[in-house]
Amino acid sequence: MSAIRGNKSEIANQNRLIVKEVRGEMAARGIIVPTMARRMGMSERNFYRAMNDPGRMTLTELRKLAAELGWTAETGWRVLFGR
Questions:
Q1: CA 65 to each of CA 15, 29, 56, 58, 71: distance values in angstroms, whole numbers, following the listed order
Q2: Model pTM above 0.85
Q3: What is the largest CA-CA distance in the chain?
């Protein structure tokens, strides 16, 4: 069984790492929440909800997020899967 599969504490830890990476990249690029939410086609409220539980983001939302942050496939894989 995968370390993340079914292990709630590992999932919570991975979600925290995703949020940390996203917020860090947003800060580095000078992107504020209203701008990022608009670029992703969602309300600020929904963006905050997504950041509170990134595991519930859709694949489309993740793709938009990765594109806005300029992530390569390798960076996206590392951030989302911790490898």
A1: 15, 13, 14, 11, 9
A2: no
A3: 40
Question: Residue 79: is it exposed, middle or buried by C-beta count within 10 angstroms (0-12/13-18/19+)?
Answer: buried
- Band of residue 1 on the pLDDT scale cut at 50, 70, 90: very low
B/e letters for 57-74, b = 16+ CB within 10 Å, e = fewer, are beeebbebbbebbebeee
Residue linked to tokens 């969602």: 42
Dihedral pair phi/psi, residue 7, rounded to 5°: -100, 100
Helices (H), the chain: 8-29, 33-40, 44-52, 59-69, 73-81
Residue 27 sits at φ, ψ, to 5 deg, of -65, -45
